[in-house]
Structures are given as C-alpha cells and as structure tokens.
Amino acid sequence: MFSQFVAGYTGNKLATRGKDVEKERLWTLNELQDLWHEWVVTEWQRRPHEGLRSPFLPSVVLTPNQMYAAAVAVEGAVPRPVTPDESRKLLLHAKRTVTRDGIKIGNRTYVSHRIREFKNRHTGIKGQGQRWPVYYNPYEPSRVWLYDHTVENDPARSPWVAFDFKYQHLIRDAWTQYLWEKAADLAASLAGREGGEEEIARAVDDLLARARRGPSPVSPSARPVAAFVPQPLEISEAPVNPYAGITRAEPGSVTPAPSLNVDAKDLFPGRRAALPPAAPERAAPPASPDRPRPPQRRPTPAEAHILGGSAGDIFRELIPDPPDQPASRPDQDPPPPSPDPQET
Length: 344
Description:
It is a single chain. It is built from 7 helices and 6 strands, in the order H-H-H-E-E-E-H-E-E-E-H-H-H. By secondary structure, the protein is of the alpha+beta class. The chain has a 6-stranded antiparallel sheet. Strand 4 (131-136) and strand 5 form a beta hairpin. The radius of gyration is 51 Å and the shape is flat.
C-alpha cells in the first residue's frame, strides 16, 4: 500500500518499473524510511482495519489509534522509565573516525582509554568505513558516547564507550555548547586569530568565574551621576479647596424627588399644537341605588395613545372596553331581581 505511491512503481520486477525512471528523482534509503514513517502515522494508523473490532460492538471497525485509545481507557497505562541506553539513542549523533588523538566534534577533541580499540578500525558496515556513530548532548558537551554495534548482543559488555573532553580539567563548572561558542568568539577577538581548544577552554572557565563573582565593585570616580531630582516650587498663593463650605449630606436629611409631578402632555411641548380639541364631557345619568355605577371612560381621541391628558388617562385608555350587553326584547321576561343581602 505504501510502495504504490512511490514514483516509478508499477510492479515487483525491474522490467516493469516504469518509463524513463532514470530521468526522475531517486530516493535514498534514509529518505524512503522517513517517507515510510510519515505514511504510517498519517495513513495506516488512521485507516480502519477489519481485524480491529470491539467485542461489545462487533459491527464497528476501528482504526489502530481508536483501538489503542479504547484499550488504554479500559486497562490503563503505566509509563515505563527510559533506560540510559534509550536516552542516549535520543541524542544528536554524527559519524566520526577515531584517530590516535581521539574523536573530533566541532573544534573539540575527545579522548578515552579505549582509543586503541577503535583507532583506524573498520565498522563492518558497507559504505560506512571507519566512521563510528557518536552521540553527544549540546547542553552537556563535556562527554560524548561512541556506540559499538559489534557487542550489542553481548550481555557482558556495554556497546556505549565514553569519551571525555581533552581539556575538561581546565573548566571547573558545567558548560554548554552556546557558552563554548561565545568563548571562542571572545578568544578570537582578543588574539586576532582563531583560538585553540586550550585557549577556548580557559576562556570558558573565565566566563564562568566572572558569573560566579558577579559584577565587580565600581570605583568612586567611575560611579554614575545621580539621577535628576526636581526641586519643589515655592507657591505664595494658598490652594483653593473647591469643597470648602459644603456640609456632608446625611442619608436621613435627603428629600426624595417626586416622580412625574407634571402632566404627561407637558413632557413633549412640541406636540401640544397637534393635539385635537378635547370633546366636551357629557353629563352622566344618575346611578340607580340597586345597580352599581359603571366606571366612567373618557372618549378616545381620533389618534390612538396621544399624550393629551394626564398619566392616569393614558393608562386608562389601554384598558379594553367591556363587552356590550345584549338588549332585552319586550317578549322576554325581565330578569329576576338580585336578592338583597340585607333582606336575607
């Protein structure tokens, strides 16, 4: 499934590899390995597999990522600590030849008491020659590790061989690759040429010693001038207090302001000219002593809800009219009078 996407692939034989393959780009084994890792992560792990089914939902086909997440959720996971050999495998590495002086990484030389075992020795790997894999940490460059693959299956011997920096005894504290580069630039600027390993090592130790001591004391003549301090101005006039003569207000002495103490028609003076003239009120008939008097309602003007009266009149207009009572016909009997509670 992966090989079908490689350029020039048409089958498993050299004769069917495609047309004009020589003119196309060729991949090295390392590049092809990187492409394979990327395809596994982006395609294979996210593709449903028929062999990955849940025992509770057999009809659901899962991807490797989904099955792994479900298994971890059910069984849990315990992080396994990384061994020293595995942690060294994660470091940066370079292929170097072991000479009689040791191993050269950048402009530093690393030595070991086992130099004779690897000096001018072939690795046994075709195309690699005498270059052995060397792993190093830029945050702790005082030691590098040579990996001897010829004894990796021997439980009595370790494949990792330590090589220490040649001038490590000149540096009395921990240092990094960044500090080494800064010391190399400093030594080159002072000497006018590229410094050697011993000079750079002494420059690194000097930088660390200065950092431990802190800033050097400043002589009285070289002290910085004090900052400018403005002198206070002499003001003859006394400052004016804008709150002078105003007494502090007490909560109990504050009188609340009346709410809507004017007619609603006076709230909008510009509309008073457009209001229609109010109709004269008709005299209400005298109320019967046996029947309660209905509430009076002012006639609604032509324009609905106009602020033509008081606030009570406006809200009274919003009340719907009572339903009309049907008129009694002469052939019907009058309704019986309601009993008087006083008589009963």
